[in-house]
């Protein structure tokens, strides 16, 4: 218990120092994220302690490696997912030394961090006890240096194929606390279109706007094509047929009673009908009506209710007295890519929080995406490390998939990211801006894109086997004592 309490305190301090900015948006969310994430991390170290006691130091260290990576892997895909502090993310602003993420993804970085630290720690202990020489530092130093050398060579020799598309990124700089009701949605739309047209022309391929920037109060799916906003965009694309709009919208869908009503749908109070709301990306062009994708990696709390299958029946009792309910948005199973009928290319319409999930992004690429658009609204946390960290993690996705990224952020930072992970033409935070540039397409699949988080899957399997072995050995030792 003493070991666990020390581990928990350590991870609590770490989580607090790195993610304190969540308090600026949601104090309740900060409490949950920091307290629970610290608990999960401390539990990993408790498993390491148990394995070391049962099987010895050397196998215990193997346990620490696989348990931590398995924890990161499992933390990617459940209702309390919060992979913000994955160890491999720490190099997000040092992209020149992690070009090998195209092979392993960021979990390879986690393995690297842990293994180098364990080896150096053991060498320092033995060296201080005069049981090790300076030569003993060669293996951990080599493990540290060789991947960096490979990465630097890869970084400076990597060449993108020249097949550019021209993109305009809109940064309307609308206060996120005002955009949902404080400022009329039509006024926000007019502002965005004015900015876009100030830089667009007949040779522009894409205009990309931030998350929930259009129809911020919601638009019904069956009424979308009758709205003034839709018709205005159609006028622009009729005038400039090359342009494709990718916009973040708030989308509403109606359902009649039956087996196809999603679990996330709400029932009207006075009607026998249900509705579901989505945080979506919408593409409108001159050659078809529209294409739509619903954000599917939702932020626990604001956008989705954790463990809805269990809590849904008592949701209003739990949250009604707090002045409403927590978010419960709809999602979709497939990673839709938007097809460009002019240039015959596909775009991955990534929305905000989704950009921190490497394996998730690879699904767009395997579905044919040749570059990535990111629409985000990450100013909820104010001028804090939060929005800068989210941008940095997006750089990892460029390396892992070798796809260029066009990022439109409501209040910044909007930018282009090339296939090496370099940030190009970054805007300033909390300013109105519009950026025009080009991104190169790529159709090649990296090893990581083809196989996803294989480091995590292998670690999870080894973790189960190792824990079972440790349990059996511990049981036999007690029985024979």
What report would you give on this structure?
With 481 residues, the chain is of the alpha/beta class. It is built from 14 helices and 14 strands. The chain has helices at residues 2-19, 27-55, 57-74, 101-104, 106-128, 138-157, 185-197, 228-239, 308-311, 315-319, 358-366, 385-401, 447-451, 454-480; strands at 164-171, 206-208, 214-220, 244-255, 266-267, 274-284, 291-294, 338-340, 345-351, 371-376, 405-409, 415-417, 423-424, 433-440. A hairpin with a 5-residue loop joins strand 11 (405-409) and strand 12. The longest helix is centred in the first third of the chain and has 29 residues, at 27-55.
Kindly give the count of domains.
2
Task: Tell me about the largest β-sheet.
Answer: 8 strands, mixed
CATH architecture of the largest domain: 4-Layer Sandwich
The best one-word shape is globular
**CATH class descriptor name of the largest domain:** Alpha Beta
Q: Structural class, please?
A: alpha/beta
Beta-strand percentage range: 15-25%
Radius of gyration: 24 Å
Tell me the number of helical segments per DSSP (H or I, 4 or more residues long): 14
Query: What is the subunit organization of this protein?
Result: single chain
Give the N-to-C terminal Cα separation. 23 Å
What's the name of the CATH homologous superfamily of the largest domain?
Carbon-nitrogen hydrolase
Poorly predicted runs: 316-325
Helical coverage, percent range? 40-55%
Q: Averaged pLDDT, please?
A: 92
The total strand number stands at 14
> Secondary-structure element sequence?
HHHHHHEHEEHEEEEHHEEHEHEEEEHH
